[in-house]
Amino acid sequence: MSAAPQEPVRCRAFRTDGQPCTAPAVRGGLCIGHQPGAAAAHVKGGKATSSANRALKLLPSRLQPIVDTLEKVFYEVYEGNRSLKSATAMATVALAIGKLVLAGELEMRVRAIEAQMRLETGRPDRWPA
Ligand SMILES: [Zn+2]
Questions:
Q1: What is the pTM for the complete model shown?
Q2: 39 alpha carbon to ligand 1 midpoint, in Å?
């Protein structure tokens, strides 16, 4: 006599809506999502992929330390450890640096597009011709 096909062991935890979790248990009677530390890992993953963090990664690398410094300055002002005048001067200089870096990057990209246009059209002129 053969044994009936074995039902997979189900997770013994409950979902946030109060219903029993139906996912297959992988360890300790719990599914992957209910393992100890799963919630913390989920939050950490969310932070790593948040749109704010993604946007910061797109900044030119030269601007990243300036953003980090401005963030420290923000908290220094908030805690009363830096004068508003000093913070304003730093923010003004940082904005000027940011504008120059972005202008340089834009110029570089336009030159690359123009070079590609010359290759494709054979025209030596700048676009638009
Ligand atoms: Zn579960």
A1: 0.51
A2: 12
- In order of 45, 60, 66, 71, the CA distances from 48 in angstroms are 5, 18, 20, 18
Distance, CA of 69 to CA of 67 (rounded, Å): 5
Q: How far is CA 67 from CA 72, 91, 111, 121, in A?
A: 9, 10, 27, 41
State in Å: Cα 20 to ligand 1 middle.
Answer: 8
| Whole-angstrom distance, CA of residue 52 vs CA of residue 30 | 33
Helix (H/G/I), strand (E/B), else coil: 127? coil
* Interval between CA 9 and ligand 1 midpoint (Å): 11
Instruction: Output Rg (C-alpha) for the chain, integer angstroms.
Output: 28
The amino acid occupying position 99 is K
Reported as a single tens digit per residue, the pLDDT across 34-79 is: 888 887 777 676 666 677 777 777 777 888 889 899 999 999 999 9
Question: What does the pLDDT look like over 78-129, one tens digit per residue?
Answer: 999 999 999 999 999 999 998 998 899 899 999 998 888 888 888 776 656 5
